[in-house]
Amino acid sequence: MAAAESVAAVPSSSLVADTAPVPETAETAAATAATSPATAGPGSEAMVSKAALATKLLSLSGVFAVHKPKGPTSAELLNRLKEKLLAEAGMPSSEWTKRKKQTLKIGHGGTLDSAARGVLVVGIGRGTKMLTSMLSGSKRYIAIGELGKATDTLDSTGKVTEEKPYDKITQEDIEGILQKFTGNIMQVPPLYSALKKDGQRLSTLMKRGEAVEAKPARPVTVYSLSLQRFQPPFFTLDVECGGGFYIRSLVSDIGKALSSCANVLELTRTKQGPFTLEEHALPEDRWTIDDIAQSLEHCSSLLPAELALKKPKPEESSEHVLSCEYITLNEKKGEDDVIKTC
Question: Which GO biological process annotations does it have (predicted)?
Fold first, then answer.
């Protein structure tokens, strides 16, 4: 799913270290690290190590990608990432207290359904300001559709609402209609989505059993669409699309165009903007401060020059460690792609 979001600040939460306060500047941490070994024992060295990690965490800035597995929502995965980083830096969120400084910005740009897997772009520090631009960029998916069954969610997680025969559908039939769904087209979004009515998500209203009207068709772009495999009732698509496009709606519409019905069985986002699943998405065992720092350095060269983070001015450098606001970005009314922060 793809759409943009606006920024809405929530109360800041301070980061409290397990064994030592977070140093106010990188220079303070370095000075402490230089003097502590000569004046203290192993316990103090551990404190210095945690303090240095906390300082490094708060200094991270940019955009990188993680590998989202099937199961958790994008917001849940982001929260898991945040917890791992805070724990490594000795700043468990359970010990946070209300303070205006030493807080962490982290967010994602472009929701993946809980049943989907693949690239999830993450912004940290000043990188959260770059996330909106990631939403409008191209995305690539591998989708496995199932002919003959329609569901209320348009994927395999929903209830079956209709069944139709598919035995006469051929590979040539599918390939012949794909051109209809390529280029600049109109698409009706799914009822189960993050689009809103009266300030509430349509998916939330649907789960409550409330009557929901479909949103009107809206313009979307499909850059490329090809059939990779057909083994009835399953068919595999390779799709590259722009922002605001729903793979679930595409598969459902293809089923209807074939005089049958269809739903998404599996969905993998293989690319978002310049980030690919194989080359850039960090698996969970690499969600460490050092690995993310390296990924940020590597990924900075992938971004267009106008999106590259400018180096902070000298007077901003020390403040950056002290005052990374902790925020949540809420979606714009009527949009579905999500930028979330935890």
Answer: mRNA processing; mRNA pseudouridine synthesis; tRNA modification
Range of the structural domain that residue 87 is part of: 48-137+274-305
The better pLDDT of the pair 225, 55 is held by 225
> Which secondary-structure segment (H or E) carries 247?
helix 247-257
Asked if 45 and 37 count as a contact pair (C-beta separation under 8 A), the reply is yes
Residues 171 and 103 in one domain: no
What is the identity of the amino acid at 177?
Answer: I
Are 81 and 66 contacting, i.e. CB atoms less than 8 angstroms apart? yes
Tell me which of 74-78, 271-275, 290-294, 330-334 is least confident.
330-334
| Same domain flag for 189 and 241 | yes
Task: Please count the other Cβ atoms lying within 10 Å of the Cβ belonging to residue 231.
Answer: 9
Query: What CATH number is given to the structural domain containing 151?
Result: 3.30.2350.10
In a domain, 255, yes or no: yes
Provide the pLDDT confidence category of residue 208 given band limits of 50, 70 and 90.
low
Half-sphere exposure in the Cβ direction for 25 (13 Å, CA): 9
Per the structure, how many domains does the chain have? 2
Structural domain includes residue 15: no
Q: Which of these, 304, 341, 308, 311, lies nearest to 326 by C-alpha position? A: 341
In angstroms, the CA 33 to CA 25 distance is 13
Clarify whether residues 261 and 114 are in a common domain.
no
Query: What are the two backbone dihedrals, phi and then psi, of residue 43, each rounded to the nearest 5 degrees?
Result: -60, -40
Tell me whether residue 251 is in a domain: yes
**19 contacts 46 by C-beta, under 8 angstroms:** yes
336 is catalytic: no
